[in-house]
Each structure stands twice: as structure tokens, then as C-alpha cells.
Amino acid sequence: MHAWPASEVPALPGQGRDLRIHDTATGGLVTLDPGPVARIYVCGITPYDATHIGHAATYNAFDLVQRVWLDTKRQVHYVQNVTDVDDPLLERADRDGVDWAALAEQETALFREDMIALRMLPPRHYIGAVEAIPGIVPLVERLRDAGAAYELEGDVYFSVESDPNFGKVSNLDATAMRLLSAERGGDPDRPGKKNPLDPMLWMAARPGEPSWEGGSLGRGRPGWHIECVAIALDHLGMGFDVQGGGSDLVFPHHEMGASHAQALTGEFPMARAYVHAGMVALDGEKMSKSKGNLVFVSQLRREGVDPAAIRLALLSHHYRADWEWTDQVLQDALARLERWRSAVSRPDGPPAEALVEEIREALADDLDSPAALAAVDRWAALQHEHGGTDTGAPGVVSRAADALLGVAL
How buried is 385 (Cβ within 10 angstroms: 0-12 exposed, 13-18 middle, 19+ buried)? Predict the structure, then answer.
């Protein structure tokens, strides 16, 4: 599977700062010092509908992580998956009377278009669950053969008790875990499981559903969590720098994935930091496909909304915050974009070197994009009120907004 073309990231004078970011597992800020190549894995979409603002907010957060690292003169090895076979996709295809693979391909293509429009930097490896199956099967076999997995009526389950560090990502108690497992794709009430929390690694073939050859596992398809583990271990190895996604992935997805990887390798932790973006609401409820309360990026673009304004709307909220999309949020972003573009369109302006450092400092401090926007706002206000004599300043501001914030002026 291919990703999307990268937009050029302008070079800035000087060098960025190491990123301090909130780690869900420890509950505090950690300073990441990745070395010359930073490694990040971000969980991708299940492509049964178009990219909504909640998706965009999540990928915007991890795009900022990439940009901060690039500004420190590091390379970034970014990996993202596509869950192109899963129950929600099959259910939507059946509802609409379409082929599930064609639906996945169609929505993945639309996602790429949205990412290009929003100037999201692409992953180096963009891997679908289906293409990862040859690498998933041997991992499930290894877990089973090591006693970390067991069979139940042809399905294969992971035993959470096989990982002594299970629970150290979410830090939730068993009651909370069980409730979330039931809400988020698990089957805690299935009879015969050793532990209600045990997640499925391999689902034996069901009539009328797609399946693949699974060696000694028999025909079937992979569970959700092992998919990401196989892709991450193959392309990044253990101990990579950031595991990212929305806050709804903390449990069970990231918890289970970490345990799978740790049981497979005997190493801990899978990732140095578990970083999670907040949820976006609409009309008082979390924006989600199941509720149908969605604002689609593609629809906004069709309505003529400048993607740079959509990006500014996302950046106006801290990535970890839960917030609500409203018409006012978009109108504020459009007004800000107009002010910024007007300010950089002049031939000269107030000096901008200090502004670049303010943006860098804000983003290095747990991706504080609202503070970064406020810094640019102050420069634009000075430009509109007093002007300046630095002929290079507007260009510096324009390049900094593009390089660090992904906003093309």
C-alpha cells in the first residue's frame, strides 16, 4: 500500500528543541531524545467512511511531532497502518451492498486526498492489515507455542496473564478494563476464555466473511491488536519512541498491543512514550461513525473551505484536550488565516527571529499549538498596527508557519 506525496518542509535557521510530551503510561511529561532517527507508530483508519475532524485532529497532533523532530535535524521513521479488514468495514459493506475490499480502497484513497490537502507529512511505511497477514501468522504461532496464547473453538486468544507488565499503559483496574473491552471490540463475556480480557489474535474463518490461509492456525483473519504489533515490530523494532493515536485507543488497543509485543520479545516497554490525542465532539457528543455525528474534511473542502483554515482550527486546541467542533471554531480559523496572510503579504515587517524561537519553544512543550498560534498572532498584530523595516521577516514567518505548523501562507 502506498502513502501520499510529501509537501516540502522549508528549512529554518537555527535548530529546534527536544520534545517534552505527555506519556499516558507514566502520567507525566517525558523528554524524548531519539538519536539521529526518531521512530513513531501511529494507528491508522478503518476505512469504512471518510476522514472526519476527529481523525484529522489526531493525525495533526502526530504531524506536529514529526515537524518538531525534523526541526531538530533528525530523520523521522514514521509508520502507519490501515485496518482494511475488520468487523465495522464488513458490516458497512454489507449494509450498502458493496464489496468490502472496494469500499476499503475507496475510503483509503479519500483519506490520502484529505491528508495531502491538510499538508500532513506521510509515513515512510503505510501498511494495510491484509498485506501484513503473512507476517502476523508466525507471530500468533509463536505466542501459541510459547503458552502465551490458546485456542477456543478454532479461534486463538492471547492470555493477558502471560505478560507481567499488562496494564502498565492504561493503568486501569479490571472493572474499567472489562467495560471498555465490551465497548471497544472485545468479547469479555464469551464462555471458555481464561480471562475475560483476553483479546483475539486469530479469528477462524466465518461463513460469508473473508479469510486467509493461516498455516497451523487454519483459515481466518487477524485480530485488531496483533496487526499493529506485527507492522511496528517489522518496521521499527521494540523500544521505538512514540506510539500514537486517539485517547480511545489507550485501552484496549495500545494496552493489548504492548502486551503482545512484550510477550513476543521479552522486552519492555514496546514504546518509550504512549501519546494520545483528545476526542472531538459535535452537538455535545464525541464525534464518531457509530453515532453518525460527523463533520467530514472532504465535505468541508467541497464546500470551498481552505484546508489551511481547517488545519488552524485543529491547531487552536491543545492536542490532548477534548473539544467541540462548531461553526464559530471554523470562522475564527478563517479570520486568523486571513490576518496571517495579509501580514506576510507586505514587503517588510517586524523582526521575526524571536517569533521562530517562540513557536519552537511552544511546540517542544507538549505540542502547545495554541501558544504557537498566539505568538504568530502577536507578530501579525504588530505588522498590521506598526509595520516594520525587516525585509526578510514576512518570508521567515511564512516559512516557519509552513515548516512547524503545516500551514501554507
Answer: exposed
- CATH code (residue 135): 3.40.50.620
The answer to whether 120 and 59 are in contact (CB under 8 A) is: yes
Rounded Cα distance, 350 and 352, in Å: 6
Q: How many domains does the chain have?
A: 1
As a 3-state breakdown, the chain gives helix, strand, coil percent values, each rounded to 5, of: 45, 15, 40
Convert the pLDDT of each residue in 244-267 to its tens digit: 999 999 999 999 999 999 999 999
Q: How far is the C-alpha of 125 from the C-alpha of 230, rounded, in Å?
A: 13
How far, in Å, CA of 316 to CA of 331, rounded? 12
pLDDT per position as a tens digit, 136-150: 999 999 999 999 999
The verdict on whether omega for the bond into residue 36 sits within 30 degrees of 0, i.e. cis, is no
CA pair distance 317, 139, nearest whole angstrom: 39
Closest CA to 272 of 240, 301, 304: 240
Tell me if 181 sits within 8 A of 189, measured CB to CB.
Answer: no
Q: Give residue 275's domain range.
A: 1-409
Q: Considering only CA atoms, give the Rg of the chain.
A: 22
